[in-house]
Fold each of these.
Amino acid sequence: MSRRRGGVAQRCYIDSCVYIEVIKGRTGVGIDHDEQDYDRCLQVLAQFENGNLAVTASTMVYVEVFGKGEAKLHDKRKSQLATGKTQAAASGIIDAWFKASPISWVEVHQDIAEDAREMARKFHLDSQDAVHLATAIDEECGIFYTLDRRLISRIEGGGGIPNLQLLLPVAMGQLTIPSPTHSGDKLSPLEPS
């Protein structure tokens, strides 16, 4: 049940793990991935914050980022939950992204739930990943940014998803997005502002 988006720049979906990685890096609490992953996630979100990416998200993103990026912000190196200023900082970051930014929010409705169910079966996904992907497809996003290499592998191993590229956040200093004449391997750069 996709909607046409005539005249609108190609939309992207940013997986919850990208936001969470930046929250942990900005608050100094337990970056789960290497520093390059943090820098790459930061680059994608900087493009979003600067208005250079049209972002669509399921309300599930808000719930996951709140739950893992604020309510349960955890420093794995010290095996303790963050509190006080750190949680307040995380809350401020989340509010800036999700309340003050032009994200196109999508509720999980019956069609998305049914599509997610089929995707979960086909690609052996958990329900949250399936909802994110089904939402991206329903909203005609062309790019899905994620740090979840296992998710990318499962989708690619299952034959892929037509018209949706699953990408790791890209190298610092340059954000690549498919050109309008994308041929599968040709990408055009979008320089950061």
Amino acid sequence: MKSPLAASIALSALIIVGATGCAGITPQATTIDYSASDGANVPKSGPIEVRNAFFVADESGTTGNLVAGLVNTTSDSATIHITVGDGPAQSVRVAGQKSVSLGGDDAQPLTFEGLDTKAGETVDVYFQSGDAEGIKYAIPVLDGTLPYYSTLVPTAPPSPTPTTTPVAPAVEPTPTASETPVG
């Protein structure tokens, strides 16, 4: 009699351990760090951290507005240099213990030319601040399809409107009555 009871208890224990054992060895998704937004958090390299960085590109994919948060975690002012491809670096100075927003609705746009990409792709961007070597990181590219990004799409600078100075109309000489003898 004891043998079926012992077998049943042993089988129940195996089922419980088998059913719950996976949770003990499987990594939990809630413990994995990730950017919970559209942008990317660049791994720290230097005194300035780059958070939630992404590009909003124009329709052709050649010009992009970099949207990001820059956070200086030190007490001293620091400069971050941002380079896309072979283009020139753009620099932003951030005061100590302060943050700067780039490219958002209330921030000055930081545009880059020559992206040669389209929405849904990534662009390799090199970030360097302080004495650190810097880091190259893949930054996502979005477009203005979503209404809250439509105002962030870079626009071409307005073409200069030709200005014309009003010219006075040419004065045509009025013919005068010729003096002919009447008579």
Amino acid sequence: MRSSQHGWGNAIHSTRADDRRRRDRCGNVYGARRRLARARGDGADMTAQRVLILEDNLIIAMEAEEILRLIGVKEVEIASNLEQAVNAIHTDRYDFAMLDVNLGESMSFGFARLLAERGIAFGFVSGYPDTLDFPPDLRHVPLLNKPFDEAAMWAFVDRLISVSDPSSSPP
């Protein structure tokens, strides 16, 4: 008996695949893309092509990447620390960035201000329930609470795209 059949070998992939099947049977996260597209009225995928994720937890970053791809984002770059994130924005262009607030020994607020200076839309991803403890100049930034699912990610990304494209109509 192979261990991967029971989710022990390649735990990340087999657990996710199993979890996706359960969500499909229950009608939860799986298929939310079509429901949300119908709710928006356009039936289109997200227009964002490149996204930067600043997240120090690889499992959370990979889950975010998977969901972003499910909702139509073409390219996702993961930075696990501030140095990698700064290097990424100096070498590539991004439609928006998702920033974990607490990166262990540092916070992402300084990097958020750098993104704002460069005109790159961004939002925070955090276990904190709101932005009241954030610096006053960053309390207006969209917040995606952990843990998140496809529907929450879709709403978060839609809000970021609306913020970065003032000509787009609100959802």
